[in-house]
## 1
Amino acid sequence: MPELHRSDQTWERVTRARHANRPRTLGYISGLCTEFVPLHGDRLFGDDPALVGGVGRFNGRSVMLIGNQSGADTKENLKRNFGMSKPEGYHKAKRLMLHAEKFGFPVITFIDTMAADPTLPSEERGQALAIAESILTMLGLRVPTISVVIGQGGSGGALAIGVTDRILMMENAVYSVAPPEAAALILKLDPSTKQDVAAAMRITGPESHIFGVIDEVVPEPTPAHENPLDAIDAVGNAIDRHLSSLDAIYGTGADLDVARLLRDRYTKYRNVGQWIEQAADEAKSPPSL
Amino acid sequence: MPVHRVKVRGDEGYVMLRGTCRTRRVMTAMREAVHPVRATLRIGHASMDTAEERDARGMEQMKERIFRRGAHGGHESAENDQHAPQSKFKPERRTAADDPNSSAILVPCPTCKEPLYVKELENNLYVCPKCGAHFRLNARQRLIYTLDEGSFTEWDMHIHPTDPLGFAIGNDGYDAKLGASQKKTAETEAMITGNGTINDEPVVIAIADFTFMGATMGSVYGEKLARAAERATRERLPLVTFNASGGARMQEGLFSLMQMAKTTAAVARLGDAGLPHIAVLTDPCYGGVTASYATVADVLLAEPGARIGFAGKTLIEQNMRQKLPDDVQTAEFQLKHGMIDDVVHRRDLRQMLSTLLALYGMPRKIASPLLDPAHVTADAAESVLSAAHA
């Protein structure tokens, strides 16, 4: 059992993850890519400004970049719906991922969303299905994939672009099954308990790493909102390292061992979780907890 | 006691009235008699009158004496319903089936408030015979109503939940909650899996039990479902899932979130093997379950009136700062918006499933041209044959 984070320590990370000056997806893309062509629209309904993507050149190689995008100020946040994607956002993500597969581009995603957009129009257009289809698409992508949790990763809205061969997480990012405020609501607790809920869910990068859900924590010697350029560099180095390691394991281009890639990705997600297996003769009785 | 035969918008029915009622009330009762969903509305509305009025007009007695023909209440289409004053309709949680140990003989229908005999409810698949509301079923009840008698073999009963995060808020710990739920439901977790037959069609079945912590998807839910899907793939059997869930299990944190990827991966493999996954969404089905394996099913069915969505209504209302109409996020709403294949009444569900299983069946019963040795190598023929006999 990892050392328990006191709730105020966890909340400090939540505050940092949400900080207005923290670099966001487009910041990372412009810092890491020498060229970038944004691609818009889901070809079905619209274009979701809360989820951006496009083709870029990263360390001399073409890659597909996709990420949640919130704004630095209220005006941009209103335009980008505070980074909360609608179904068209996830449809766009799915389209861009299949696009990347077609041309053999590795897919790099940046996770930075509190949750998927919880409004009636999104429900009407099938928010749940859009997320499910994006997850399904990622599981079967025949190219290597890497995701980085750069700010807040919350709920299925984040996982929709997070089912990758490698999951990285910034030191001051948080990743949780639901944002602490929503979790308190779901658990029928007082909203003032959000800090305790955040701590109890163990949402920080180091804790997620200890539990083996993520692959690496990208350290932030100074928090990213104080020193964005160093943070972008650190993320770039981490992505580069993992991309090289994926290349070394599975090969590149025509030599890519797709079957092995998909098998390993399946195993990675198939093995997540903790449970107790009792011998068959004890099976009837509930476990002593 | 006067019995009136009435006809309203093409539907016939009977009303029996006791005491004296004014004409308007009689007409209301008649309408209620043949349009059960509206009946709930009007009665709900009428009962908001003052007590004196209600007594004077014998509304309570009238309510008790209303009968109607048939049991098509839950089947009313959205078109028929659109004139109903839905803003006054407050659907209640359907929980009478929640407590399997209850010894009550009479339970009120949470939707139409009619007192119903438990025995009668059981014989009617826990569908209110008065208004057609579908009560929630626990997983064992669902098994009984779905599979052929005695055909069920349960799998993976030895998998139990644990508390990976040491989750506790104050004195409220996850392990204690698990223990309480296990005691209350006599289940070890919110997911039951196994194999059996539906009208002699072999099937792997996975049923979520909403009475166990709201059937939230934790590690055990995901693991049992994934194992069931994998075994179905190995044994070349179709998969039927009955889904009801409050979403992810907060107490298992990221482990819970990742079950979405895990379950989706497992049912995707089933699909890669050419085997069908038929999902039935039952009341209520939300969050991580609708946003993962359930909605990517090959055939997506729902029970009438089931609440289905991604975000909970309270959360949406808080976020949009407005009240939502009561008919959003129902099975009918999802059908209208193209998200599910059909809404199926509980009494038709077994037949529907066995029809689908037969339609999507493996070459079991079909003579395949691939089996002609002139056309294929021995290897290929053998693999088709082994599939056929699996």
## 2
Amino acid sequence: MAGIEVTTLHKRYPDGTVAVEHVDLSIGDGELFVMLGPSGCGKTTTLRAIAGLERQTSGDIHIGDTLVNDLPPAERDIAMVFQFYALYPHLRTRDNLAFPLRAEGLPKAEVQERVDEAARLMRLGPLLDRRPHRLSGGEQQRVALARALVRRPRAFLMDEPLTNLDAELRADMRTEIKHLQGELGTTMVYVTHDQVEAMSLGHRIAILNKGRVEQIGTPLEVYDRPASLFCAAFIGSPPMNLIEVEVADGKLRSQGGLVLTPPPGLPRDRRLVAGVRPEALEVTEPGAEGSVPARVVSAEWLGDEIIYVVDHGGQREVRVRMAPTVRFAADAPVGLRHTGGPPPVYDVDTEELVA
Amino acid sequence: MAVSVDEAVSAGPGRDHTPSRRRRGGRGRSVLEVALLTVLAVVMLFPVLWMIETSIKENRDVYAIPAKFFDFKVTLDHFKDVFAGSGGGRSALSVSFLNSVVVAGVSTALATVLGVPAAWAYSRFSVKAKKDQLFFILSTRFMPPVVVVIPIFLMYRQLGLIDNKLGLILIYTAFNVPFTIWMMKGFVDEVPAEYEDAAMLDGYTRLQAFWKFTLPLLLPGIAATAVFALIFSWNEFVFAIFLTSSDSVRTAPPAIAGLIGGTTIDWGLVAAASVVFALPVLVFAYLVRKHLVAGVTLGAVRR
């Protein structure tokens, strides 16, 4: 087991595309580290550089104490799980699992023992004598995970391993991966574009955009105080309401008259945007104390909650998360008020967190 | 025999279309369709049937007026003449068949050996100006080959490649490599790169990973591509007739064409030689159909 250090990573392809502009990561020993971002943000390229499948243009990668820049993938002592599983189609499950061990030249008895252990961990018993095309997507992914396990590598690299599974199976596998990582205590770098996956799995999350790291933090840090407007819009479903505000009389006021508690240390003379989570707002009866008049534009009934889209005279409509018992008809006149603490505030021009 | 290439290409898809169209149309339409297709089939197949008939007729039946369709004596003498020379030993035609086998076989093998790794590289790696390079490669197929016969002839004369099997092999390879690269690139794109990544993590070099994992999955595609290349080289006439002159180098298409001319034409021999010449193409066309289907349903991986 080992931590992974990525310093000033830069990757530029011969055709001129820059996949990774500048990435610094410090992944702890035994950590489940998630790289999250939209497609083309450089997360997969970073992972492939760690694996040794891509050679970075500049920058260093350490796995444990070893500088691995010039090591071929096989000598980095890592295992990778791919989105398309990449099980060898001509081999039975058993031989797929044994393959990396045989390639290493381990004695037969040990190969057998390790394959059995991995098969037990991933509950593959009945699948051992099947070929990949006779396995379902979920089964293939379990085999792919087991194939990574048998290596007993210093780190696991996961490249969107659950993207091809259907929603129900994905949730199950997510639990399984998290459990497995906790049990083995092996460092895991997990790449995904799915924020739910990132939030539920990661000890820490790195949000990448355009080849740069926008923010690194625990799921709660990332959720509560997104470091930039990009993060604010990316994390959360529905995402944060980004409301343009002005500072007046020691309060933050939106164009529609909504009043927010200001965080300390606000800069002056800048255009500001407050990031307000849908659950930090409340739809009330019209005229309730501290509320501004507003109108329900639409309501999404999700069963355990209702998402109201509300127009309060600001530039943008805001989304409000309410309990399913609080019901307002569409188009009804309502009140809107802020209930949470001071929201994070961003500079409109730099798009960065200022307070 | 240039037609047979087109037949080979259209054989697969054509079959798939007919039943679905018939399902959509009514009964009257299907009768009309069958009638039209029958007429088309007769028109297309009649020359082939006539060629086969002529090859097994005795000479006086060949020239009979009115033509004899059914009641003639069957003889295999013409086929014997194709292979055996008049004074015993091998005939000039059989030598040219052998030349065709060598030239088509070697040029196809060369095109495959050069084209498949190139296709793999274009599919897997990020190359500077990749699209322009691929367009340039394809552009060599834009013009009809006959356009460059004269310059090629002049160059070959300088190089001493006129009337030389190597010359034909080289020019056929040059025409087949672009085709192989383009067709194989499609097949390589279909095989997920993750196989190679996984193999590299398991301790193989990139080339070993290609050799051990990607190549076996590409075999149906390689077979289909090679068969197309083979059919091109086998049928090629223009370069063969311009660049070769002696019987010992000549390939079958100009050799068969050479039988026509002079005062009498042995149509039986021409037909028999054509049948022998066409057989491999028919067999290969059949193989292409099978392997094209195999190539499409490669599906070892779920996407």
## 3
Amino acid sequence: MARELAVRTCGLTKQFDRHVAVNDVDLQIAAGEVYGLIGPNGAGKTTLIRMLATAEEPTQGEIYIHGDRLLLDQSNTTLKRRLGYLPDDFPLYDNLTVWDYLDYFARLYFLREPRRTQRLYEVLELVQLQYKRKSLIATLSRGMKQRLSLARTVLHEPILLLLDEPVSGLDPVARMQFREIIKVLQEAGMTILISSHVLSDLAELCTSVGIMELGYLVESARLQDLYQRLSHRHILLTTLGDFKQLQAELNNNSLVKAWEVMAEKQLRVDFDGDEEDCAELLRSLIAANIPLTEFHCTQEDLETIFLKLGHQQAS
Amino acid sequence: MKINWIERLGDKNPQFLRELQELQFSSLLFAVAISFLGQFLLFIFYQSQLPISYDSTPISHKFCINDPVSEYENQLYCLRDNAGNFVIHWQLWWLNLFTFLSLFGIATLLAGGVYLLVNNLATEQRRGTLNFIRLTPQSPQTILLGKLLGVPSLLYFVFILAIPLHLWAGLSAKIPLLLILSFYLVLIVGCFFFYSAAILFGLVSSSLKLASWLASGTVLLFLLANHYSITGTLVDWLFLFSPTQIVPYLVEATHLNSNSIDGWLILPSSLYSRHWFHIQIGSNATNLLMSSLLNYSLWSYWVWQAIKQCYSKPKKPLLTKKQSYFLVVCFELVMIGFTLVKGDVPAWKEGMIYHYRYLLIFNLVMFLALIMLMTPSRQGINWVRSSQKHNRNGQQFVQNLMRQDSVLLTIGVNLAIAFAFLIPWILFNLEASDQIPALLSLLICYNFILICAVITQIIGLRITQKPALWITGTFGIITILPVIVINLLARNSDETSMLWLFTPYAWAVTKSASQVNILFAILIQWTILGLCTLQMRHDIKKLGESASKALFTESNLHSKR
């Protein structure tokens, strides 16, 4: 059975004066997915996300959130309650305390007591800011502010989360904390659309990715499919025995495309199979009594795939 | 109990609660200090105005009860009691304190509140926080009402603390309690109108650096100009917006001798004769109260229509076409009502042509404002432009623009509505000799408005940076500059007065000018209108082509990749 679509856009276009920021985009994101949006600066990622978040009106095209159409001439009150949007600049009220800020937004999203207080504690725990709840926002670090913004975004339990560059400007520890929170949210069943230049993060988090360039969505696929289609596997082999015997054995495997001698008694093999095929190769080499000291299987990462597609990613 | 109350308030209007949360205890203390210190200083100041007795020399003073003996001798000396102290006219003294407090309160509440609101919205827009609130499911009314109630809350607090003194002063001056309460009602509704207008201005003027000063300065100037009102013309309608208008009615209710009251507080006779569709709205405080409240309510409604649109869709016109038609109907009804005056008032002395000129000027200003309200941002036009991608036909594209987004068509329909009101007015109210010149001047004025609408479109299409500022500047130049130039030129020549025919103020000369000259002026206006329309179509086509080119280039680039 086909999964329900959390987001569907048809011919979505946004034009600013003479510049077409988003061009005829047909995007589909299944419910429960973590969808990564990648592309160079100015590719239209932020504009696309802003349109989905109702912050920007499309010039043309249609947006459906869980099957309901976003209508331009209506306030979309119900749909707004389903969306959580975290922009890249996340403006905050510096003169409010963490608790008052979250309480204010909880009220804006019609959360009533006692659920409101309970939810405030939940999100503070999620972003690990319980101990800062009485602090003024102005006193928080950038990472804390980012986490507070995320808490504000998920406060009303949206079913679709739109995160625009959520980890930009964060140190590695803060980025890791952020990733962990996203994973928790995914487990909670939220559909998450996340744009980022940090492709290693996306590779870790996402189930699907879309690549944008010059306003077009040039690629949109499940991450596994993308790896299968475009990512090559490399196997690093080191043997104590005869090099020729190893090469002969490799020649017998149809999935081995080529190899390169890396050092004395070390080869790097271009392998066209999946993990099971790797295991089969290893089994055949051991069966052939080749004294292997190293059998290391690696796969090309998202950044390599992205660059291979001819895109230039700033990371 | 207190917590429950705050909880419920916050649930009803989270924005109001947030504004209150921003108040600090120190600022509340400061407000209390300011209020009480101000009241104390005022009280002391008026105390110092009382006459002091050093010896038995007879003196005259405005706060004294005059000695009946001296009055008889045409000498106004202060009456003294048995102890030799002056007998103070306390009712008059309290009245002076009351009126000062009232007028000062009105000016500070209106100008201060307007400043705070415009400034607050500018800050929110600059920080980008307002865009965030826009994304929440709360209605624009809830958010902006919260701002209206919450942002000037310190100011409200200062004035609420002054109410006991104000009320006491009013009652001591023997002003009926009901009238004082009416004053408060007018002030509250007036504040609501001005604050609503400030919110609208704040939303549209976020790029203007001195917007808050400009807004509060305009309010102060308006209140000052109000002192010199009561002209027996349509300008009286403008002054109906001022809460100060009710103060002379309160003063009159004291039944004090008009000689002892400051001139500017005495109810002018022309205020009595203010009419709307022959209803005497200025005859008594009740009528003025009702008309003020209705006037505020009607225009507050329209301001909120624009606010809702502006808040929800900042890049769209502030009014829909349908709303603009109803707005023009409202405006014409209100205006025409004020020209239908009964009795011997200055306007009648000069004839209805006097009213007609004001009608034209007010219509001109209203239409120029409407053009600005109806002009979408570049992005509003882009929607149509991108539709060219599909039909790729310039002619069809222009038709799309005319049908869907053009201000021109809307302004044209609105002008027709205004015509429908003004032509019968001219035929029924003006003398036969004035009717043809009046109709011609109406046509010239409306041609001018149409030209302005086309120019606005051209500016909107060509200028992307602050087009509203450019449009305002252009309107200022083409409506005010000709008056200055022609006045300078016409000082020594009658012929230059014909130049008036090319301005919206053609009524000044349509009666004296020859019909050939008038027709010539109308033909020139139509030529300008035609040329401007051609230019606008050319600009639209060019923009459409370049947009298509941009789309094709990007498509090609994409396909090459």
